[in-house]
Amino acid sequence: MQYVIKSRYGEYIKRGADGAYKTVHNAALAERFSDRSTAKNVINNCISKKYRKRYRVEGIDDTFSPAPPTDSLPVVVKTSGNKIADVDVMKRLAERETESADFDHFESCIDLLSNASRNKDHKISELSIVDQEKSDLLHYIENTDFDLYSAWLAMKALQNCLRRRRKIKDELSIFDKISRLNMDITSIKDIRKEIDKLRDNVYVPRVLKQLFDDGGAAC
Q1: What is the pTM of this model?
Q2: What is the 3-state secondary structure (H, E, C) of 91-150?
């Protein structure tokens, strides 16, 4: 028995190449777990707390294969008129992975914008501390006699300090650009509302309600 994580909207969880878990609509692409507890840990630790209740762990048979076997499909199928449907092409398109909009990514962007001023102040404080460390190291080097090993250690300490300083200065440069965007609180709140609305957007069927288990489907 294997297990997958499925949302009430029919989405599945898959681990991407970057290690982050994302949603996919094709069950064949869902991440498989060998035990239920591991899948539950992913829900509890890798999915935003706000959206965990949407997901559940489902057991599937080890032989589960939502995609039809390749050898069961002909290469081409005659259709009405003179057109020929290329089943191989359609099969590849049907199995193509389609991920839902990465709302967590957008929320991270909004957090970055809304906290830019505070983060910039924090980086300025970090830079001040690193500058003082650099001054201490330079004075230590100036007033100390070294053998080869201690000289290497002093050089390495100074190098690490300078690299940390460069990293902070680069981040400050970005925060400085962000602060010039003049994003007001109202704009940020409007974007957050739009993200929340789209996360919970549900299509309500007009006629074919039997096609939807719970009366609707995520849009």
Answers
A1: 0.42
A2: HHHHCCCCECCCHHHHHHHHHHHHCHHHHHHHHHHHHHHHHHHHHHHHHHHHCCCCCHHH
Contact 87, 76 (CB under 8 A): yes
pLDDT, tens only, 109-165? 777 777 777 888 899 999 999 999 999 999 999 999 999 999 999 999 999 999 999
Q: What is the pLDDT of residues 54-112, one digit of tens each?
A: 888 988 876 555 544 444 444 444 444 554 555 666 666 666 655 555 666 666 777 77
